[in-house]
Design a protein that fits this description.
RNA-binding, 3-stranded antiparallel β-sheet, single chain, mainly alpha, about 45% helix, about 475 residues, about 10% strand, 3-stranded parallel β-sheet
RNA sequence: GUCCCCAUCGUCUAGAGGCCUAGGACACCACCCUUUCAAGGUGGCGACACGGGUUCGAAUCCCGUUGGGGACGCCA
């Protein structure tokens, strides 16, 4: 049996962290088993679905590198099929028309809440009522008959055996009064139609699984395996909601987080493989299994993402990263970049990357390589350069350096140290003014590395410190 | 209110009855390295929610309590 999984987001907003992880798990599971992973947009609620949301979700998934098999399925396009199934259920007496008005339903709900009685909100009013009693002029909904007694057990691949009394399952609506299918019907029909073998989704659907279980049975269909993975909570421990600051994956992309970081982070949230922390996608596919998914919810932790990101930043391909950095710099800078920007970036990127946690930080750090003289100085740099003898030392040093035959780190190092020695100075007393003049900042990669990356001409040019 | 789920360092987790005086990672602190800032290295702080059982033996199994979360829509 080929494994078929799916990710079924509703297009009412961006792809948030929780959804991204559900998608990742479903995808990983399918890839691990050499099966299929299908993307289905659950747009049965046309009022709340938007094209923008659909685009954002697909964009987010592709950024994460989660590729689906076949075309994207739009649930709304299966509406006829859903309706047919519903009619069949009605014809077989497994579903019935319910003429309750929204007001009546609200009343029932409030009554139950007020009295604290156990049981369901809907009192099965129309379950056995004769259709001839139907009030005129009211479009009914279709409800499915749930068993009234006994209990239902589900062997969830993550949560284990979960049992629920059938009398707590109410006859839920499968077709709205306007003739459109509800989510509950649509998921079951569509999951069956794509041959889904494993339904992997958020824990918030666990309760629905019981209802869907009976819907599968009513249709005479095989019930897929369920795996309800725990929700991701915010730092405060409550469910990640848009209201609680849950952000779309695009937000993290904009922050300068790498997709591989996000994949690794999301993977380790609720799933583990011994003590392994940094796990490549290849390894993840090889190792992933539902049995290692934890049952308790995890909290979102930005520090961990940043830490992982600095790891993947160091692993990133230098020239690709340089291109990306340059791209962002072009879009955001108001100054024109040096012709040598890319070349300098490529040779200096490793020094930059170990000082940054995000691509955005790399961009900030790369300023000293992106532009030619004259430099912009920050306050600290200006302070250093206006210090006693600072400029004098720089000018003397520039003289010495210009005579250097070999422009590499060890020779530069040697020359500068020698200068410091003969003048009775500590290396820092020379290096800091140099740094300020070359980087325009009090903070930079190693000063000799900077000189090599800039090259002899640009270095000597900057050491003239023509404007402060 | 009813139903369902969960419970190991602050956080993510390892742990499937003896390997646990509970391991790793992030964060935090200290030290080392050092031309700045980082990175890196070394070390430190720090948890089995509580109470009962079962067992020769429990973080691991059972029950209860407490705490947390989720679901109760003609939303998905």
């Amino acid at each position: 049996m080929t494994v078929v999984t799916r990710f079924a987001p509703s297009p009412t907003g961006y792809l948030h962290i929780g959804g991204a992880r559900t998608a990742l798990f479903s995808w990983l599971f399918a890839r691990h088993h050499g099966g299929k992973y299908i993307l289905r947009v659950e747009d049965t609620d046309q009022k709340r679905s938007t094209q923008d949301a659909i685009d954002k979700i697909i964009e987010g998934l592709s950024w994460l590198g989660i590729d689906h098999d076949g075309d994207v399925i739009f649930q709304s396009q299966n509406a006829d099929r859903h309706a047919k199934v519903a009619e069949q259920l009605l014809a077989e007496g497994k579903a019935y028309k319910c003429y309750c008005s929204p007001e009546e339903l609200t009343e029932m709900r409030e009554k139950v809440l007020k009295n604290g009685t156990s049981g369901n909100f809907y009192n099965n009013l129309w379950r056995d009522r004769d259709p001839s009693e139907a009030p005129a002029g009211i479009d009914p909904v279709l409800r499915i008959k749930m068993p009234l007694a006994g209990e239902t057990s589900i062997s969830d691949l993550v949560q284990g055996d979960v049992t629920r009394a059938n009398n707590t399952l109410d006859d839920f609506v499968i077709m709205r009064s306007d003739g459109t299918p509800t989510y509950m019907l649509a998921v079951v029909v569509d999951d069956h139609d794509i041959g889904a073998t494993h339904v992997i989704r958020g824990d918030d659907h666990l309760n629905n699984a019981f209802r869907q279980f009976h819907l599968y049975n009513a249709c005479g269909w095989h019930v897929p395996e369920f795996a309800h993975i725990p929700l991701i909570h915010g730092a405060d421990g409550a469910k990640m909601s848009k209201r609680h600051g849950a952000l779309g994956v695009d937000h993290y992309a904009a922050l300068g987080i790498l997709p591989e970081t996000m994949r690794n982070y999301l993977l380790r949230l609720g799933w583990s493989h011994g003590d392994d922390e940094t796990i490549s996608t290849e390894q993840a596919i090889e190792w992933f299994g539902l049995d290692a998914v934890g049952r308790s919810p995890a909290r979102f932790d930005m520090d961990r993402i940043l830490n992982l990101n600095s790891h993947y930043l160091k692993e990133a391909d230098p020239s690709q990263l340089s291109e990306a950095v340059l791209q962002i710099a072009r879009e955001t800078s108001d100054r024109s970049l040096s012709d040598s920007a890319l070349q300098r970036l490529e040779s200096g990127i490793s020094g930059l990357v170990q000082r940054a946690k995000t691509i955005t930080e790399v961009v900030d750090l790369s300023n000293l390589y992106l532009f030619d003289t004259p430099l912009k100085f920050n306050d600290k740099a200006r302070e250093i350069l206006t210090g006693e003898d600072a400029l004098k030392r720089i000018f003397e040093l520039a003289e010495i350096l210009s005579d250097l035959t070999l422009w590499d780190e060890s020779h530069l190092n040697e020359a500068v140290r020698e200068y410091a020695d003969t003048n009775g100075l500590k290396l820092g007393q020379v290096a800091q003014p140099l740094r300020a003049a070359l980087a325009g900042s009090n903070v930079s990669p190693g000063i000799f590395e900077v000189m090599v990356v800039l090259g002899r001409n640009e270095t000597l040019e900057r050491l003239k410190v023509t404007s402060l």
